Amino acid sequence: MKSSLQNLHRNIFSLVWTGVRRNYDNLDDNIAKHLGETDANHPVGIHLSRMFSEVFKRHSRDEADRLFIVGTKSTTPSLQKVSSRPVTPWFFSRVFLVLAVSFVMLMALLFVFKSNKVIPGLIFIGSLTVPLSLLMMFFEINVYQNISIRQTMVIFLVGGILSLIVTMTFYMILPIRTEISIESALIVGIVEELAKCVVIILFINSYKANYIFNGVLIGACIGAGFSVFESSGYVSEYGLATIFTRSFQAIGTHTIWAAIIGGAVILGKARKKPFTAKDFVTKPKFYVFLLIAICLHTFWDWDIPDTGIGVSLFQEFIDIVIGWFLIFVMIDAGLREVKTLQGQQIIIHRSKRKKLVNKR
Question: Which positions carry the signal peptide feature in this UniProt record (predicted)?
Answer without folding.
Answer: none
